[in-house]
Structure prediction request, 617 residues.
Amino acid sequence: MNRLFTNDLNVSYDADLIVKELSIEIPDQQVTTIIGPNGCGKSTLLKSLTRIISPASGSILLDGKHISKENTKKLAKKMAILPQSPESANGLTVGELVSFGRFPYQNHFGRLSKRDYEVIDWALEVTGTIDFKYRQVDSLSGGQRQRVWIAMALAQESEIIFLDEPTTYLDMAHQLEVLELLKQLNIDQKRTIVMVLHDLNQAARFADYIVALKDGQVVKSGTCEEVITPSVLKDVFQIDAEIGKDPRTNKPMCLTYNLLKGDSNDENANSSYAYAISASY
Amino acid sequence: MKTRKQPILPFLYKMVAAMLGLVAMFIVSLVFGAAEIEVKDVWAALTSGGDIESRSIIQEIRLPREVAAMVVGSALAVAGAIMQGMTRNPLADPGLLGLTAGANAMLAVALAFLPSANYFVMMVFCFLGAAIGATVVFGIGAMKKGGFSPFRIVLAGAAVSALLTAIAEGIGIYFKLSKEVSMWTAGGLIGTNWNQLQIIVPFILAGLVLALLFSKQLTVLSLNEEVAIGLGQNTKTIKPLLFIVVILLAGAAVALVGNMAFIGLMVPHIVRAFVGTDYRAIIPMSIIFGAIFMLMADTLGRTINAPYETPIAAIVSIMGLPFFLLVLRKGERAFS
Prediction:
């Protein structure tokens, strides 16, 4: 049985119900990707899974306990979050920022222990940011900065890491770099990774498990082969997609697509077009 | 390796240097003033010697006044630092975001309806007023999803401050209390006595201690609220707690000196240049720098046009305005 799942989850934002009657299970030690058109509730789902938003009803269970009732510090040792494009680090250095990953392990006045310093250096090492340790986070490039935030999440030593669109604002090479780092962490350290991605082909390439959402509900979840299919994409994104195989990774890949005729008055169809366009990648 | 060295000067040395600066400034402020008193007489007066006149000037006028200057400076500086950290707004300041104007308005209310109120009651009204001012300004700021830009919040602060000041003045005129109200709110340390200090200082000290205790939480919160939750911070208790600390500090400061903008804005930014952006360093340094700053402003006010006093609020504002414009220009990068 998996450690994290939801039961009939309803989450609203302001007055609108964004996530509706959603029951999913996050497979342990795998990379799960949540995909779906704009406004389908991807980020809201991620925020409620990480207790940033509390659900209107339904439950989220981790290790058999409701996360809403669990001590938040205890949870921070089990799950780390990387919010969508974290703002500036206020002039903190890389080392300082990553050291906050040890926050859940410290008492109120906590000074960093020898073990804390080891973990911090290890996190910097794995993410290839050790050379920037004494530089200001804000002085780094987008890709470097993202790796620093990932290092902070790693320093939390949590089994589960959530990321909300970790590749936004990065160029193609840096996008791949971040995703490969995450995949590596998943393989080497068995961390469970849950992320929201916009790019279907990246989702297919790096995920073991995909959850496709639309209007706050799961349309289809399963392996890449099960989810990245013309019929699912038609349903989720209102696109007519041609699916092939990535010649290098053998994963399914959206080669080209058109908007579905007759549905073009649907706002979702238009917005998903803009984002799914990275299929050219 | 492309590593840059860690700052060479450890924080402790900086603290010691700042403390020495504070002691020096404190002595300067006791020595300089309208009445000519020599350094040795100041020492004699403090140790209960010397002639009676200088002794009473030092002990009953200058000493309480400088103690007040120090605690008010520290209180406003720390209140500003906490507000900047909580709201990620580099322009946050208790004077600019409606807290002191709110406290002033409530002071006027207290003077009008509870004319016999003692100092403690007045202070409680200041706390209330600061809380009202802050709630209104941040309420306006929260009206838009995702929040307004720092600059818009300052505009809201200015508008709300203008309204609250008008209320204070209106009450003053209607109840024929204009003189009393303006005496409180003009912003001055004139006539500060030990009785007032005995009542107000404990509240400021409590606020400062709480600020020090929660400075690490403030740094975590200042990263981004979602990050703070992810790191296991209980933001639902930390945020109200920090809010209360700000109200305590700003309200008590108004009860002592009335209106005083810009200190809470300036001091934390100056401090960041020396100790970086971790509030564990910013808060203690702001306490010392705030005290030094106010002592300096007060000493200037007493000496540049002696024997007449130049209002300290005017001096602080003259120094503060260019600084405000500088922070505005730096915009987003003001924290680094």
Q: What stands out?
A: Chain A touches chain B through 42 residues (CB under 8 Å).
